[in-house]
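Structure tokens please, single chain.
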Amino acid sequence: MIRGIRSISMMLLAAGTMALSPVQAATPEEGAAEAAQAWARAITAHDVDAQMKLLPATMYTKPGERERNRAQRLHEKELAIVNKQKYLSFDVRAASQTLKINKFTAVVMPYRSILVVAEGKIQTDSALIAIAEEGSNQWSVFDGTGYGNVRSLRMLIPGYTTGLNVPQAVSKLITGE
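Here you go.
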């Protein structure tokens, strides 16, 4: 009886340990998609800490810049709560492009979000960009809105020159739906 309980306990412990282990993605697109889904959950929940963990380290080159961005995101969260803004959806679509850039892999994933605001609903079509260093399964994600030019992408992806097709973001107010 005790041996049976001990065996069951060991199996449950092993299963719990496997559940906590990071999932190894078979392809860059799968790893990027997992990170993008985590980003979508963080955005819809206004989880600033989760967003900050997912952002690339290269986004903050100056001292104090990361903390200023965190404070700005917290402020935006407070405004969203006060203004009763809420995401109805944040749907990340399949990767539209995968590009190898020096020691990095970048994956572009279109998304559509719908945000409820006082005036109605705002639908935004844009793209997330996920990046990881070669051989790593640690993906960073950022919203590609506003990063459609070479100069802005070069700041985030070391060695970037050209080739990433980031679609122009489009937002529109949807009323009466």
